[in-house]
TrEMBL record:
The keyword Transmembrane helix applies. It comes from Halomonas cerina. The chain crosses the membrane at residues 42-62. This is DUF3311 domain-containing protein. It comes from the Bacteria. Keywords: Membrane, Transmembrane, Transmembrane helix.
Length: 70
């Protein structure tokens, strides 16, 4: 793959990781409001885990074509 693919994948991973630790956790470190019955910080982590999963899935599909390899 080309350098752009690797750079975008690494950037996506870094942004998601930073959103879950410093400084992202400082922004979301509060109990109120509750979202889906969860304190906001728990929702924040769950949201970024879903964003990270979706981005890595897209990177996998782009790299491997999305088909089964046997």
């Amino acid at each position: 793959m080309n350098k752009t693919y690797h750079l975008l994948t690494a950037l996506h991973f870094a942004v998601c990781t930073l959103a879950m630790i410093w400084p992202g956790a400082l922004i979301a470190n509060r109990i109120e409001p509750t979202v889906l019955g969860l304190p906001f910080l728990f929702f924040w982590y769950a949201l970024w885990m879903l964003v990270l999963f979706a981005g890595m899935w897209v990177a996998f599909v782009v790299r491997h074509g999305g088909g089964r390899h046997e």
